[in-house]
Design a protein that fits this description.
The chain has 147 residues and is an alpha+beta fold. It is 20% helix and 35% strand. A five-stranded antiparallel β-sheet has the order 1-3-4-5-2, covered by helices on one side.
């Protein structure tokens, strides 16, 4: 059930280790072939602490932690009526292999269009590394069609 009272709700923190193999797998999946994503020496020569995560990798961290589904579960929304409508990233630091990333997701807005035929859930996830450095913010919009 659609519940705008959930605006402002933060979910429990989640944690994930960024692994070299996962970065390489992700890089190949998106067609990235830069050596920095596969070879630690190349990454360090480019100025990184270790192999860096591709720019859209943080979304996979959130997906692996099932973060996208938490607001939908709270409102018993059928995921077959949902589509990932928008994604934005704001970087404040690098995410590299070996990092332990902790995130917290918050519902920041909910609104309707077309007389309620389309509903939008906006969430933000703040990611921090093992040194408590704020490295990235994710902003996601999920579109829900129908009642």
């Amino acid at each position: 059930m659609w519940n705008t009272d959930l605006i402002g709700k933060s979910y429990p923190p989640f944690t994930a280790e960024v692994e070299k193999g996962r970065i390489a797998f992700f890089a190949r999946a998106i067609g990235e072939d830069a050596e920095i994503y596969f070879d630690e020496a190349a990454a360090k020569q480019a100025g990184y602490r270790s192999i860096p995560a591709p720019l859209t990798f943080p979304y996979s961290i959130a997906m692996d932690a099932r973060q996208s589904f938490l607001p939908l579960d709270d409102m018993a929304i059928d995921i077959t009526r949902c589509v990932h409508g928008e994604q934005a990233f704001a970087y404040h630091g690098d995410i590299c292999a070996g990092d332990i990333i902790t995130g917290v997701q918050t519902i920041t807005d909910m609104y309707e269009k077309k007389g309620g035929a389309l509903k939008f859930i906006v969430t933000e996830i703040q990611l921090r590394n093992q040194d408590d450095v704020h490295v990235c913010d994710l902003r996601t919009v999920v579109v829900v069609r129908g009642g």
